[in-house]
Design brief:
Bound molecules: guanosine-5'-monophosphate
Helix content: 40-55%
Low-confidence stretches: none
CATH architecture: 3-Layer(aba) Sandwich
Largest sheet: 5 strands, parallel
Distance between the termini: 13 Å
CATH topology: Rossmann fold
Mean pLDDT: 94
Radius of gyration: 16 Å
Strand order of the largest sheet: 2-7-1-8-9
Number of domains: 1
Length: 189
């Protein structure tokens, strides 16, 4: 089967999806990242366009009304949206796109791009996920419990994905991830 040049990666918050995607972007020059838009607050170390276009709720809703997004979702009480124009832009340059979306986004993309490669990253268990989120966002972060509750719901949807990778150790998980990307690029270039 000829695949769409698109990797859709989902995971509960804190499962390590961003690190896997970042490493793959360094290792494969054929890959390009999709920068999506969000209304959430920036975290320390983040900036405009890294890893999102950070916009106000008003701006987001205006872009949405104007048809700028191919899909939008409310995730952990914040808006996220994927610009529509980026797909053809990247594909016309022969690139493979990698994008990180929540389970709702992946469900929408399955309708538009049924031949994309769908990958779900799982934490080893919920306790480990809690520890990683506490380390990243602080034990008293107000959305920690929202993210953990959502994680349980998201994990139930993992079987809908073609590939599921348990991120127990970064190196082991990455070698699985890299292999999926390598063979897809090789077979679809
Ligand atoms: P975070 O705020 O932790 O960076 O991301 C929260 C969640 O939003 C993640 O599951 C991420 O995959 C998802 N996300 C990021 N951009 C988009 C998007 O454009 N659409 C959808 N549906 N989800 C997104």
């Amino acid at each position: 089967m000829k695949r769409d040049k698109l990797f859709i990666v989902s995971a509960p918050s804190g499962a390590g999806k961003s690190s896997l995607c970042e490493r793959a972007l360094k290792d494969f020059p054929e890959l390009e990242d999709i920068i999506t838009s969000t209304t959430r607050q920036m975290r320390p170390g983040e900036g405009p366009g890294n890893p999102y276009h950070f916009v106000t709720v008003e701006k987001f809703l205006e872009l949405k009304r104007n048809g700028y997004f191919i899909e939008t979702a409310l995730v952990h009480n914040n808006h996220y949206g994927t610009p529509a124009h980026i797909f053809q832009d990247a594909w016309s340059r022969g690139k493979f796109l990698i994008m990180d979306v929540d389970v709702q986004g992946a469900a929408t993309f399955r309708k538009f791009f049924p031949n994309a490669v769908y990958i779900f990253i799982k934490p080893p268990n919920i306790d480990e996920l809690r520890k990683r989120l506490e380390k990243r966002d602080g034990a008293h972060s107000k959305d920690l419990s929202v993210r953990l509750q959502n994680a349980i719901k998201e994990l139930e949807l993992a079987p809908l994905y073609e590939y599921q990778i348990v991120n127990d150790s970064f190196d082991r998980a990455y070698s699985e991830f890299r292999e999926i990307i390598r063979t897809t690029i090789q077979n679809n270039s």
